[in-house]
Amino acid sequence: MRILVLADSHGRVENMVRCVEFVEPDHLLHLGDCVRDAEKLQRYFPSLPMTTVPGNCDWGYEDEPERLIELGGRRIFMLHGHTRGVKYDLQRLWYAGREYGADAVVFGHTHTALVDYDGAMYLMNPGSIGGVHAIATYGVITVNPQKFDCSTYRLL
After folding, report:
1. Which of the 8 DSSP states describes residue 16?
2. Whole domain around residue 68: which residue ranges?
3. Taking a C-beta distance cutoff of 8 angstroms, is the pair 137, 111 a contact?
4. What is the pTM of this model?
5. What is the end-to-end Cα distance of the chain in Å, rounded?
6. CATH code where residue 106 lies
């Protein structure tokens, strides 16, 4: 299973379309800012399963800002990050992930791609697919019986 992880699209739906076409994911996670972009993307790929959480720029969305989901037998804690102050303290995410028994914590908000692994759990920020800081980035989670891995890539 390949899970495409996107965050901080900020209106750049065309970048999201390119990612889906390139990665050919089995599932897509959108981590907020802007959830309406994920809704537009769904029209291009109606059969692609998507899970979203709203970000700090998603005014009016009543969805839960944090979700614990299971995909391919792995637990993924997903959030935008503003609810846990990720711009100032990533330690909170490590604690939350352990508290929920997550295999990975995925978040956005900082617009900076990151993958960290402590031997038991991944912490991953796909960066900004909207290219807010001129470089559009995305994440991929690979799940199969032999492998569980999180990676980030630059959209070319």
Report:
1. H
2. 2-154
3. no
4. 0.96
5. 23
6. 3.60.21.10
| Residue 117 bridge partners (DSSP) | 122
Helix (H, G, I), strand (E, B) or coil at 79: strand
Tokens of 37: 């972009």
Say how many CA atoms lie within 13 Å of 156 toward its Cβ.
3
Structure tokens at 122: 């991944």
- For the chain, the domain total comes to 1
What span, in angstroms and rounded, lies between the C-alpha atoms of 46 and 39?
10
pLDDT in tens, 104-139: 999 999 999 999 999 999 999 999 999 877 799 999
Closest CA relative to residue 124, chosen from 145, 100, 108:
108
Whole-number Å distance between alpha carbons of 151 and 9: 18
